[in-house]
């Protein structure tokens, strides 16, 4: 199996922990995605660089980042057969669940456009090359930047801390801007997102559908967004505690789907497993059964593992004991149980591979390359394409670890 090796990660991770025990709940994700180095296919030789566009009219709508700066996006125009097709990718980056780490987040690109990169690479599902992105390469492709800390769902503020929680308004302002740039004429549209953006693509999926006439083919893709309300290694619920903080600090109770909050508490309604059965728009779940981020920050975060018994295992799956592997197998089983009803619908799609990975659609090596991860000899890109274009139904669920030899497993060293 291909391995992704992380240099100097531990030093930076410790630094983040000194700021807040849950700062890593969003900043760790950056190291997974941005500091990756692999073999062939990891980074396109001549990556497409796309400039940041700020939404100039957003401030008048109150659609601003945590620090009050303008939100933004990156767009590359479609051409030919894809000129009237649109792919929207919602950026991920975890969440902030306390005033303290929301204030810290204002000093990063996850909370302020002042710190966003002026250009980013479009690879994987955003690539403009047919050999890297066979079904969506010539579509209008957009990356919407994430700077609200709650998966584009909040609409409140904390005046004392000078924090703006305006994710819902950012979503609406971004969609309005893109509609004015031609998306209103879309014949085909796909809303996607990675990690916290994958959760956002679930939360906004049906809302995205309402932007278009019934004649427009609209579907949604959630990559690494299936965050589980799992029991951690201490018997607690570390991620539930984080989500409870996010819901509370941003006042999400009134923003979450009523068809969920009528039955469950608001925190439960921030977990995708309690949302997916109510999504009416066709939805594809792309997820690693042993999601690397969830192992690090939900199953065995420092707060749940004070003695470091999981220190080696959660950084390198080959160092896990038999009992630790069994714990991870139970997590996989819980994930598969959570999607049973969802998977029965013919309109929905699944690609659940037994890899130690996180976010597989934006990275070239895991999306579509010579050695990409496979289920039934099919890579992620072709599975998503077959599902979107109704070439065939896709309900791809891998056998349990260690059967899959095509994985690009993440390893911290």
UniProtKB/TrEMBL annotation:
<keyword id="KW-0964">Secreted</keyword>
<keyword id="KW-0961">Cell wall biogenesis/degradation</keyword>
<comment type="function">
    <text>Hydrolyzes acetyl esters in homogalacturonan regions of pectin. In type I primary cell wall, galacturonic acid residues of pectin can be acetylated at the O-2 and O-3 positions. Decreasing the degree of acetylation of pectin gels in vitro alters their physical properties.</text>
</comment>
<dbReference type="InterPro" id="IPR004963">
    <property type="entry name" value="PAE/NOTUM"/>
</dbReference>
<keyword id="KW-0134">Cell wall</keyword>
<protein>
    <recommendedName>
        <fullName>Pectin acetylesterase</fullName>
        <ecNumber>3.1.1.-</ecNumber>
    </recommendedName>
</protein>
<comment type="similarity">
    <text>Belongs to the pectinacetylesterase family.</text>
</comment>
<dbReference type="Pfam" id="PF03283">
    <property type="entry name" value="PAE"/>
</dbReference>
<keyword id="KW-0378">Hydrolase</keyword>
<dbReference type="GO" id="GO:0016787">
    <property type="term" value="F:hydrolase activity"/>
</dbReference>
<dbReference type="GO" id="GO:0071555">
    <property type="term" value="P:cell wall organization"/>
</dbReference>
